[in-house]
Amino acid sequence: MFRNGLEPWHIIVVVVVAVLLFGSKKLPDTARALGKSMRILKSEAKAMKEESGTEAGPVVTPAPAATVTTANNVTPTTPVNPVDSPR
Fold this sequence. Notes:
87 residues, mainly alpha
């Protein structure tokens, strides 16, 4: 009874229904619009894949800040610029 999911008469029924719904003049325009939409969708999906691939690139970590000891031998937690430090 159910050999295959899609038999030739299924395709014929779908084509007949499409012609009845859209008319023979609008089918080429509809197919063209569907093709354009599929191309746009494909290019946007490719762009999203490329964009997400570049963000997941190598991680660059900043160099550790140089620590400066003060007169009381206390190491500050924030980096101190030698030009700005008191003398």
